[in-house]
Amino acid sequence: MSRVFENTSALFLAHLAARLLSLLVVIFLMPRHYSETELGSYFLALFITNLIASIAELGVQAPLIREMTLRPSVARHFMGNALLIRIGLSAIAFGVMVASGHLLNYPHTTRQMIYLLGLSEVMSSLAQVFRSVFRAFEQMKYEAFTVITERALVVLVGGTLIMLGIDLVDFCLISFLANVLGLALSVFIVARRFTSLRFKPDLEIWRVLMRQALPFSLGNMFNLVYFRIDTVMLERLSPHGVTANAWYGLAYTIINGFTILPGAFMGAMFPGMSRAYVDSASRFRRIYTDAMQWMALLGAPFAVGMAVLASQIVVLFPANYEQAAIAPALSLLSWSGGLTFLTTVVITVLRATDKRKAFTLLMGATMLLNIGLNLILIPRFSHIGAASAMIVSEGFLFMAGLVFISRKLARPTQVHVIVKALAVSGVMGVGLLLLRNRVPIWWLVPGAIVFYAGVMAILNRGLHMTLDAGG
Q: What's this model's pTM, rounded to 2 decimal places?
């Protein structure tokens, strides 16, 4: 097994388990103990802190991994100086979170959740500096361990306390403490397994990192804005107010729980892709093609299956929740989730090849498109309008990015694999549509997986996809 597959497996299994554990809490526990209004306020606080946390990132992580991959002998100096940058930016980000809670005049409980979730984001942001070492040295198993430990604490402790009757503010406190543990574990592993924590502040390293990061930072913020601004706008523009955040947030959480694969996959491929771009144009093209093929193979059936089965999935929520309002949002967001598999490839390629201007312009255009669509659609269609805006935005991002990469960097080969994936997914979708009201979902999902995997294996027999980016 290649190193990419090993690292992808470690990251994927860890983040998938973490997302599934989070789904267990958000989907099965929270709706049974909190009202739609309470849960809507939680999602609002969560997405606001996610949005503002982009200030702390400032695009440093990708160039940090890239530099440590290319210059491992000075990794500790890059890590230490990046940590100093991140501490300062995290302080600014948390200040903005606190100010936003007051300036937007949110209720006291919502502000408390913003503060605690904001501190959680700060801890997570600092931990990412150390986890960048794991990725640069292509030892993602350590990141997997810290992520699993962190999420398990939230689920076991937080989930138990939810059943005992704690409020959502206390649950946010548990989340903060879990992120503190994740940071401590990351620091410990880096110090014991990789490099000492001693380093010398170096303005030259700051210059190297910031020269690469600043152009990407604006693009990263644009990216997060178009992913998160809809929830903030929902609370203000939807005729249903914060309740629309609950409907949209539940649907979004389900989709987000299963779109961890492209992030894990491309995160594992990033170091090898960065090296290949410098060393070998043909190898870079092969890695890019393989990534696009695998994400299409996985994203197409995901989008079709989730869209068709949305009305069956929402019955998991308690009867006092408006299931009829959640189902169409889930169905629409399934398509944007499928597109996320492909847009993650586009974004990773632009970062790995250091195409800063193109990345920023692409993210900025996507953000403006998304905000404009939300302004038009949310007042008329509430959370359904927000979900529709997300589909159009992701579609634009993928098509525009694909055109740029094809013209300036590389053209993917063997596109017939993608065409086959779309065709087989369509057939699978028709079958699910005919059977969804006759066969329990517990049988439909495994059956669909077996059908899709079996047909694709037959159609692509003999196809060799190397994925040897890890060497």
A: 0.80
Q: 3-state SS string over the chain?
A: CCHHHHHHHHHHHHHHHHHHHHHHHHHHHHHHHCCHHHHHHHHHHHHHHHHHCHHHHCCCHHHHHHHHHHCHHHHHHHHHHHHHHHHHHHHHHHHHHHHHHHHCCCCHHHHHHHHHHHHHHHHHHHHHHHHHHHHHCCCHHHHHHHHHHHHHHHHHHHHHHHHHCCCHHHHHHHHHHHHHHHHHHHHHHHHHHHCCCCCCCCHHHHHHHHHHHHHHHHHHHHHHHHHHHHHHHHHHHCCCCHHHHHHHHHHHHHHHHHCHHHHHHHHHHHHHHHHHHHHCHHHHHHHHHHHHHHHHHHHHHHHHHHHHCHHHHHHHCCCCCCHHHHHHHHHHHHHHHHHHHHHHHHHHHHHHCCCHHHHHHHHHHHHHHHHHHHHHHHHHHHHHHHHHHHHHHHHHHHHHHHHHHHHHCCCCCCCHHHHHHHHHHHHHHHHHHHHCCCCCHHHHHHHHHHHHHHHHHHHCCCCCCCCCCCC
Q: Do the beta carbons of residue 65 and residue 135 sit within 8 Å?
A: yes
C-alpha span between 425 and 419 (Å, rounded): 10
Q: Select the more confidently predicted residue: 3 or 282.
A: 282
Phi, psi of 199 (to 5 degrees): -155, 170
Q: Which of 328, 364, 140 is nearest to 244 (CA)?
A: 328
Query: Can you give the length of the chain in residues?
Result: 471
Q: Answer whether 423's CB lies under 8 Å from 300's CB.
A: no
Question: For residue range 253-275, what is the model confidence (pLDDT) as tens digits?
Answer: 889 877 777 877 787 777 778 88
Query: Under 8 Å CB-to-CB from 184, ≥6 apart: which residues?
Result: none
**CA nearest 217: which of 398, 326, 363, 100?**
363
Under 8 Å between Cβ of 290 and 415: no
Q: How many CB atoms lie within 10 A of CB 324?
A: 10
Does the structure show a pLDDT above 60 at 4? Answer: no
CA neighbours closer than 13 Å in the CB half-sphere of residue 398: 20
Domains of the chain, residue spans: 1-201, 226-237+248-465
pLDDT for 466: 42
